[in-house]
Design a protein that fits this description.
By secondary structure, the chain is an alpha+beta fold. It folds into two domains: about 1-85, Glutaredoxin (3-Layer(aba) Sandwich), CATH 3.40.30; about 85-200, Glutathione S-transferase Yfyf (Class Pi), Chain A, domain 2. The protein has helices at about 10-20, 40-45, 65-75, 90-115, 125-145, 160-175, 185-195, 195-200, and strands at about 1-5, 25-30, 55, 65. The chain has a four-stranded mixed sheet, with helices on one face. Strand 3 (about 55) and strand 4 form a beta hairpin. Helix 4 (about 90-115) packs antiparallel against helix 5. The mean pLDDT is about 95.
């Protein structure tokens, strides 16, 4: 059976669990990271020297870290994966562009907002820093809103681009912040909420 190491509250672990559930692949998840620790233990470091989550362990012993690499690998190797990962070079590049953009651009401001307002004690919060991050995130979500004009999903067809962004999307709507009216973004969020794996693994209470 496939094993996923990582706490369920990690936005990067969520992506992997979401895809596995979409593919109807049985898996086991082992808590690691955050309050659960373990990521600096020698046995974990042998699988993932970065002390991060998630780490994927396949039944034949192959291990892989980095959430987007895991998404690509599972789509390429598991039955039904092609439905979520386009075959054509241009369609695949479109999907991968948004996966890379998520990590290179959106990840940091969303991380700052989330950690400040959810995981930092109130007395220790850098609220001006969180406000700056919110402004930066809003500019980026406006880019996604424009991309979604005339599209149901980010790369046209539901797939890995949506999975890369979907965890941050839920946090954007769930965090106690002001948000502009971005109708395409909201409609996309509502479409994702129709998917049981998204509701199960991603659209959960913030912690």
């Amino acid at each position: 059976m496939i094993t996923v190491w990582g706490r369920a509250s990690s936005v990067n672990v969520m992506k992997v669990l979401w895809l596995l559930d979409e593919l109807a692949i049985p898996f086991q998840r082992i808590d690691a990271g955050g309050a659960f620790g373990r990521t600096r233990d020698a046995d974990y470091a042998a699988m993932n020297p970065n002390a991060t989550v998630p780490t994927l362990v396949m039944p034949h012993g192959y291990t892989l870290w980095e959430s987007h690499a895991i998404l690509r690998y599972l789509c390429r190797t598991q039955p039904g994966g092609n439905a979520f990962y386009p075959e054509g070079p241009e369609a695949r590049a479109d999907a991968e562009r948004w996966m890379d953009w998520t990590l290179a651009s959106l990840n940091e401001p969303m991380r700052v907002i989330f950690w400040t307002l959810v995981r930092t004690p109130e007395a220790e919060r850098d609220l001006p820093g969180a406000a700056r991050a919110r402004d930066a995130a809003e500019r980026l979500w406006r880019v996604v809103d424009a991309q979604l004009a005339g599209r149901d999903f980010v790369a046209g067809r539901f797939g890995v681009a949506d999975m890369a962004l979907g965890g941050f999307l839920h946090r954007w709507f769930a965090l106690p912040i002001t948000r502009p009216d971005l109708p395409n973004l909201r409609a996309w969020y509502d479409r994702l909420l129709e998917r049981t794996p998204y509701r199960t693994h991603v659209a959960v209470p913030l912690s």
